[in-house]
Amino acid sequence: MRKNIILIKAFCIAALIFFQINLKAQENKVIYSVNGKLITYYALSHDSLKHISVTGPGKLTIITRARFSGNSTDSISYGIVYVCDNTKLKVYKVKKVVRDAGKVDILSSDEVPSIAKSFTIKVDPDIHDYSFVMQNESPQVDLRYKFIPDTIPEWRDISSLNDTAKIKLEIEKSAIQSYYRFSSASPKKFKVKGPASLRVITRLEYDYTMQGSLSYRVQVKKNDIIVGTYKLSTNPSVESQYVNDRKHVPGLLKKFYFDVPAGDNIYEFSLLDKQFSALIRVSKQKK
Asked: Could you tell me the residue ranges of all domains in the chain?
């Protein structure tokens, strides 16, 4: 009997938790009426993240509205913290937003929405996760978004200034790709005329002493000045192999992107981890 009572209690607790989770998910959606058109917003929280996953390249526009309650002041300020792929943190701040005097209402709520405030994020190619959270507990702010994809970019590989030896990899379906080998002692330089967008692909080189997931750091210099360091995590690739090297295994392909300013620029890429070597391919987006 005691065992049955314990099981019933556990079931009730689990059911209550499930109900609360689903109730919270339902409450996360907020329906606005804007000039008679119903639009879905999502209530932002100070305690939990709102995630948006998009496949770039393109532009992600975030539209926000604060809520005025009966005793609110004439204007409201708020901040939204957003992060791209758990690495790039920024804050969008709105100062002294006022009530929307148009035909805008929140269904099932007596609160009054503010005028809409928006900002746009440039999304690089590939899949990216953006998470949003309120900087402070109040006011309540709701969010909606729209994503406009760019045309699919074409990339042209750039030759290294200080190396002509290329390492060839056989990719799945018998495709061949060419890379340059670089390391801490042997950086690779590329000349890029801007303005332009640059794509950098790297693969860590594995030998018989290296196993599993490993991290490595790529340092980037522009005209002999350090402009960034990228920390990348990888594993051995099961779909790629060297054409003329059976002693090494290429790591999984890792990418990062950045914009190049106007003029002639020399970019240098090196590894900060002296025990590793890696492969690199640098491409410029075609206009």
From this structure: 31-149, 155-285
pLDDT above 70: percentage of residues in the chain:
90
Angle at 91 between CA 151 and CA 260, to 5 degrees: 45
Task: For 153-196, write each residue's pLDDT tens digit.
Answer: 889 999 999 999 999 999 877 799 999 999 999 999 999 999 99
SS3 77: strand
Give the contacts of 209 (CB within 8 A, at least 6 positions apart). none
Q: What is the mean pLDDT of the chain?
A: 89
Please give the Cα distance from 217 to 278 (Å, whole number): 10
- 31-149: which CATH topology? Jelly Rolls (2.60.120)
Are 161 and 191 contacting, i.e. CB atoms less than 8 angstroms apart? Answer: yes
The residues with which 24 forms a beta bridge, in sequence order, are none
Evaluate whether 31-149 and 155-285 have a shared fold.
yes
